[in-house]
């Protein structure tokens, strides 16, 4: 590694991506005698695990975002740079952003993952996924817009399509979305409409494998399934979407094909490594797996380049279990902390044992008093799991924001099921409700004309 | 008036617009034996007086919005309809929304006002105004984006343009924006950047007339001017913008022309009645004033149609003072309540004396411990005014939302100058910071490409 011990300029660490991985790497280096440049396309860090609550109207984007500059305001060795990296040159040790060039001694790539439509990229428009604030606002617009459109629709068949929600993917995001939409339809919005009965809403959760939440213990999957069904969600396992055309979703369960008309299809199925993985592969020759993740060494560096690290959702770390570590926040966070520490050790001429993920368990929220918690030794369901989920997230949010009052408000809103944040906003918000979910008929908002007198 | 006393179908009241006027009219009718249809393009009511705090990063849109359906959830006689009214037919007593027709016995038009660029409509793109949530998010993107772009800019002249903010219009919105941006630049963001010194930011407030806040007592205008100047705002009265081209603003003060390069120009100058005023003029022949407002009768109905009322910013009510009532929330609110009451009286065969605006005074926030309050008999400045402003807004927000905790959080954030809500979001958020404020170079966000393996 190009450790700049000989000269006086401090060691330059460049981190690409301000998600959990990048953020915790930068935090680990905040007091080290290195210079850190943290590059992100966005000016904020996003607490992605709660993004589904923005999509379903419980939280505002800023409730789960922290401006990167204010996080590192006091860390004078850390520079936040807003921009998009186009290329990396591992020979000259430079990162390229447009016509700007940032040199590095050590590079940490933490650009995460994007949705994957398994080659059916045309599904993206009809079945949006949930990765960014904009995704969440768009989902929110579609979900609340669907009820609005149903209220105006007089044709019973079309109304049914507006009141049908199909969620593809039974991982945590899919389960949490399905549970939240069920509570919306069957509880929160019940009194709000005059023409429709929101309790007629149909919510389908489609899962390819034999059970939902496959990363949890089988008994917890079963408990979550029962909870979802009690809430009113129709659950289909062993089910794959084979076609989406207009508002018709075709899915295959066992060997039977079913069609359902739905105006709101939400994608929570596949992810793939972000494009930076491809850039790395092209410039360093590093290998990637079937979903575009970069294969990393036991210390999270990449083969042939001990000063380039890949962490978080973009990394395929397979040195602990038979299968790669999952793409979840705690993995990214621990990897960021590990690399931050490793860089400091190396500068002292020391080293660290290989990265080891300390699995603290996993949890998923289904609805009021309904959650599942898998802590290996302890498994919780129902109210206890729900209370535990709440406590854990309060803890994370405090650590994340240190604004106790915000967290208190969040918990309060969450407990009381207050859905203030159900604004339909964005450029398409002015468009007639009828075409809300129909991207092809999108019209630009009416240009304000001056009054002619 | 077509009072439907003879038959059994209840009297149909249609309200267009869910701002302060429409909202309070509907609230006044919530327990009356009439049917109310409240039509709005948006699914929420917006507390517009605090919109500038969304634009400057203190509040989230949902902090100052209330979903219309949840406001009227319990009022079973009230139906909320999401849609845009295209036309009115006063003869058949119908309101037309696309291919939908809504009949009325009494119509209340409360569609408010839009920006006016005094015929220079091409300025709108470079100098956006502040009326909607989208406007506020766009302003926020431009304000925070300007600091980001300045941080990356190496050319000192261009950097100065990024750090120059021009606010056109010295009414409450202009004053509040100028004060908030000054606090951002000189206090909140001071420690956040590494290349720029945000205290070098230049903030110009341009006012056409001889003093800012012309609706207040002269001594309060003077006090506000001193406060703004203490904060660091450069104030120009007797000043008119004569040209905006690219990022060059030309303004004329007395008889001298000055040019300034600014990447962030914010419009808080003129308003005009919304397009619904034109529709009313064409269909009923009612007169409008120079700024497109509809001239109303002493009971807020329009000439020749005692079952059509116009209230709020769209109405020109000149039966109380020599000049029309100002376009502020309390006027709209009281007019809405008046019309709601009048309709009920008429149905009982009674009437009401003409509308009378009870002016409770006006106030404007400048910055921490700096505000001006004009209550006719009592005039406050400095800390006392600031505390009073806070109390009044806490009171309004409680009435508005009844969620004490939210209000408490808001007040806390406000007092502690917490700017969590400074996310740069929206479709253009991914665009390179350099072109952030340059609409002409807008590129669509990079399409996510699947990884090819």
From TrEMBL, chains A, B:
Residues 361-415 form the External alternative NADH-ubiquinone oxidoreductase-like C-terminal domain. Residues 12-336 form the FAD/NAD(P)-binding domain. Keywords: FAD, Flavoprotein, Membrane, NAD, Oxidoreductase, Transit peptide, Transmembrane, Transmembrane helix. InterPro entries: FAD/NAD-bd_sf, FAD/NAD-binding_dom, NDH-2, NDH2-like_C. It comes from the Bacteria. GO terms for molecular function: NADH dehydrogenase (quinone) (non-electrogenic) activity. The chain crosses the membrane at residues 377-398. Its EC number is 1.6.5.9. It catalyses: a quinone + NADH + H(+) = a quinol + NAD(+). Gene3D superfamilies: 3.50.50.100. Belongs to the NADH dehydrogenase family. This is NADH:ubiquinone reductase (non-electrogenic). It comes from Atlanticothrix silvestris CENA357.
């Amino acid at each position: 590694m190009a450790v700049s011990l000989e000269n006086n300029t401090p060691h330059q660490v460049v981190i690409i991506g301000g998600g959990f991985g990048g953020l915790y790497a930068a935090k680990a280096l905040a007091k080290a005698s290195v210079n850190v440049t943290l590059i992100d396309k966005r000016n904020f860090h996003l607490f992605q695990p709660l993004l589904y609550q923005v999509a379903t109207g419980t939280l505002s984007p800023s409730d789960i975002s922290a401006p990167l500059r204010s996080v590192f305001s006091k860390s004078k060795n850390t520079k936040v740079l807003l921009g998009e990296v186009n290329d990396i040159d591992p020979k000259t040790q430079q990162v390229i952003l447009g016509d700007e060039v940032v040199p590095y001694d050590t590079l940490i790539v933490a650009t995460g993952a994007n949705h994957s439509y398994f080659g059916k990229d045309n599904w993206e428009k009809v079945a949006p996924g949930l990765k960014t604030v904009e995704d969440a606002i768009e989902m929110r617009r579609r979900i609340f817009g669907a009820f609005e459109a149903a209220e105006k629709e007089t044709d019973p068949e079309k109304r049914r399509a507006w009141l049908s929600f199909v969620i593809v993917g039974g991982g945590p995001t899919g389960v949490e979305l399905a549970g939240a939409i069920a509570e919306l339809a069957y509880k929160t919005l019940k009194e709000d409409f005059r023409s429709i009965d929101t309790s007629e809403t149909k919510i389908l959760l489609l899962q390819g494998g034999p059970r939902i939440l496959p990363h949890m213990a089988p008994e917890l999957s079963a408990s979550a399934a029962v909870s979802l069904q009690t809430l009113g969600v129709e659950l289909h396992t062993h089910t794959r979407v084979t076609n989406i055309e207009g508002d018709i979703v075709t899915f295959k369960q066992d060997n039977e094909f079913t069609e359902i008309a739905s105006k709101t299809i939400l994608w929570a199925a596949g992810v793939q490594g972000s494009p930076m993985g491809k850039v790395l592969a092209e410039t360093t020759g590093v290998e990637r797996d079937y979903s575009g993740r970069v294969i990393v060494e036991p210390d999270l560096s990449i083969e042939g380049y001990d000063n380039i690290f890949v962490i978080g959702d973009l990394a395929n770390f397979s040195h602990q279990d038979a299968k790669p570590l999952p793409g979840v926040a705690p993995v990214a966070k621990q990897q960021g902390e590990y690399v931050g520490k490793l860089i400091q050790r190396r500068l002292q001429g020391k080293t660290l044992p290989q990265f080891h993920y300390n699995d603290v368990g996993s949890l998923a929220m289904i609805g009021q008093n309904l959650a599942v918690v898998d802590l290996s030794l302890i498994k919780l369901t129902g109210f206890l799991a729900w209370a535990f989920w709440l406590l854990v997230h309060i803890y994370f949010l405090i650590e994340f924001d240190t604004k106790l009052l915000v967290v208190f408000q969040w918990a309060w809103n969450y407990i009381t099921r207050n859905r203030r944040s159900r604004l339909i906003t964005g450029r398409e918000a002015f468009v007639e409700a009828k075409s809300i979910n129909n991207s092809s008929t999108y019209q630009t908002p009416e240009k304000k004309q001056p009054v002619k007198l």
